[in-house]
Amino acid sequence: MMRHIFKLICLLAFVPTQAQAPTEKSLLWEISGKGLKTSYLFGTMHATCDATLSPRVTEGLDNTQQLYLELDMDDPSMQVKMMKGLNMAGGKKMSDLVTPEDYAVVDAFMKKNMGMSLKAVNTFKPFFVSSLMITKLLDCPMQSIEQELIKVATASNKEILGLETVEEQLSVFDAIPYEAQMNELVKTAKDDMVNDKKEFAALYELYQKQDLNGMLDFSKTSKNEMTAKFDTELLTNRNANWIPRIIRIAAEKPTFFGVGAAHLGGENGVISLLRKNGYTVKPVL
């Protein structure tokens, strides 16, 4: 069970930002200029019905020497590091964050959808528990674009690395109040994922259209407060941290970067930040 949980929580929920995005409709972007080795930036969706990579994406992988994802997914110590960061700080429990009635609702929801009691993960950060439900949002067996990228990279003996450490990524969910995370989990349980499925389907359709602007506009009407209130923690701060790393990495080797599509758009997105630093970032249409 814990191994199953680990695999699921590695797939961070797809959370859109609310800033203005580049007008071009593309998920694949070429990065060049100022001494960089020509590299590629690709927006992924962590859960999908069809993870087939387009010829343009595989060509970009072929033309680079290494693959960088958000995390180093083939790090043998990753599971241990992840498990260490699942629990809330200060010995908090989810049962302490809500009324007994709401806790019972979430517990029944978990038993119905995951076949496990909330007691088994009572000390976990609520956002991680919410992420376990990602497979339930799809009307198909879940596929992972990241795993497809890893397969292609591994087949050509490319090294697979991460833009941030497990510890850095997990710290995001300590910066967001546990109460806010738990409130969203309660909402999901009470609604039995009706709204979550509706919003996920709409975002998935926009992703398939490669419509970054559409995804951003849609986020403004989201009922998920995690999206509306904590995009700074989930996206903006991380994007800013990634920029000097992307520049350094791409200056050394032509690199294929695959990160959640939510990180691409907006004034504080990776595309805009690279352009502000004087680099050429153009869509591969």
Automatic annotation (TrEMBL):
<keyword id="KW-0812">Transmembrane</keyword>
<keyword id="KW-0378">Hydrolase</keyword>
<dbReference type="Pfam" id="PF01963">
    <property type="entry name" value="TraB_PrgY_gumN"/>
</dbReference>
<dbReference type="InterPro" id="IPR040230">
    <property type="entry name" value="TIKI1/2-like"/>
</dbReference>
<dbReference type="GO" id="GO:0030178">
    <property type="term" value="P:negative regulation of Wnt signaling pathway"/>
</dbReference>
<dbReference type="GO" id="GO:0004222">
    <property type="term" value="F:metalloendopeptidase activity"/>
</dbReference>
<dbReference type="InterPro" id="IPR002816">
    <property type="entry name" value="TraB/PrgY/GumN_fam"/>
</dbReference>
<keyword id="KW-0472">Membrane</keyword>
<dbReference type="GO" id="GO:0006508">
    <property type="term" value="P:proteolysis"/>
</dbReference>
<keyword id="KW-0325">Glycoprotein</keyword>
<feature type="signal peptide">
    <location>
        <begin position="1"/>
        <end position="21"/>
    </location>
</feature>
<keyword id="KW-0482">Metalloprotease</keyword>
<keyword id="KW-0732">Signal</keyword>
<keyword id="KW-0479">Metal-binding</keyword>
<keyword id="KW-1133">Transmembrane helix</keyword>
<dbReference type="GO" id="GO:0046872">
    <property type="term" value="F:metal ion binding"/>
</dbReference>
<keyword id="KW-0645">Protease</keyword>
<protein>
    <submittedName>
        <fullName>TraB/GumN family protein</fullName>
    </submittedName>
</protein>
<dbReference type="GO" id="GO:0016020">
    <property type="term" value="C:membrane"/>
</dbReference>
